Amino acid sequence: MKVLSKAIAKHEEDALAAANESLKQFDAEAIHRLRVSLKQLRAVFNILLFSGQGLIGEEDWKAARKIFKQAGRVREKQLLRERILALTRAGQVPKKTVLAFLEKKEHSAQRKFKQHFTDCGKRDVKKLQKKMQKAAKEITTENLKAYFDDLLQRINQLRAMQNISEAQLHQLRKYLKELKYNRSFAEEEPGVLMDGVLESEKLNDWEELIGKWHDEVVFVQRGEKLKEQMKADGELREVIAEMEEVSSKNSEQLLHELTERFPPGGDGATAD
After folding, report:
1. Separation of alpha carbons 159 and 87, rounded Å
2. Do residue 218 and residue 89 come from a single domain?
């Protein structure tokens, strides 16, 4: 299917461009673009995987997953540093030792990413792209329709739950993001996407709000991990505790907003 082949080529090109830019200076925006491009490539990969043609399997994504995770470790340290700086600007006492600690962790993550991507990352992405292109040629309109029907069903099953867990809410976000990335394929193939699917703007708002909530949850989780690493350093532990408190309050507020705007058991990904 040509529309899939074009998308695969574009996402691979974007990912390699962002990776090459990241290797020069590890710019936060470039790292973010790399991860987004890999997520978009993964969304197309899921279409190919769902089709059941046997030309591609989960093991084929292993190399890309490693690149994604290594880039994620760099981005995680960047986000933690940004959050500490935000606390400082909000009136907290500057903690240079905290920032130095996080900067050291970030540099370590950068070295590992650079070494892996230089050694085999670029080759692995190109190899994956070629295999995906081969599988994309076998995808039919019927395959695409079946994929979207299944994805929407999974979204609506989670959406209908009255007591959804944090893990399930995060999974719902992944499905919504996948629908956002792949929706254009359905729009180019008449009759593929079921009637009544919520407009793109509302789906995007839904996914982004869950994403903001999840980011705050992750800040709390990472704070606990950092405190374990810091051991006896009281100053560092104090600042991380401050970050955890702010993030915990933010996550509660966002979860409340999420419940108000998209109440459990509501319409889901399809409108009445």
Report:
1. 34
2. no
